[in-house]
Amino acid sequence: MAETSTHMTIGRFSSLTRLSVRMLRHYDAHGVLVPAVVDPGTGYRRYAPHQLGDAADVRNLRDVGFGVSAIGALLEARGTPAWTRALQMQHAELQREVREARERVSLIARLLDHGENLMSITVTRTIVPAMTVVAFRGTVPTYSDEGRLWGQMMPLLARRSIAPIGPCGVIEHDDEYVESDVDLSIFAPVSPGTRVEEPLHVVELPARDCLVARVRGSYDQISQAHDLINSQMAAESLTPRSGDDLAARAFNIYLSTPDRVSEVDLVTDVCLPLS
Asked: Can you identify the CATH homologous superfamily of domain 120-273?
């Protein structure tokens, strides 16, 4: 009985843990946070002091987005690599959601201030000069994950003492816009005669007649840049270059990058080769 006297009513436990009585009953029903004692006559639930730590973990896991079934499994995995992996995966997922939410907020702002924001993108027809590039091809979950490829390529270039001689960029290989598993080649312009080993490749890109949308500001304007390019193609009866070679693919050139300037000072050329 001495131990029972230290048990807390569900109301007291709720007050201490900042979990509502309704949620405590919910967690009990799903076997996630079961009371230490349940009176068989009245059904009153009582909780032990050591369950305060469990309740804190339950609340924190709930607050970062885990469902009831996942919380139950994670409580069993505390102190193991599975616990760490699950939190790391959830962290990455929440970062993706934050990024997407910021992009939606930015799009709403541009829609509200349509005329003003269009001024941050200008479209011109220009010849993009020929260049020798070192390219690194890979598949990433989404377009926003392009940075993963840069994180792999740049150390390889540094190891070979290869320094880009101009703005770097990315080529899109997919024939259509895809929502996942994006096939990209990132590239860095280098001096002719540069030699590399796999997974790097030297590519000779020819001069190309392109519609170029210059984007000033965040990368979430890239889709709008393509909209403006499409509008100008229609207005001038232009057609995009066709073919399976890299010279026919849409590409971006990063005239400034996030490691050197703030987001508002980014400048990106979105390029579509013409036939």
From this structure: Regulatory factor, effector binding domain (3.20.80.10)
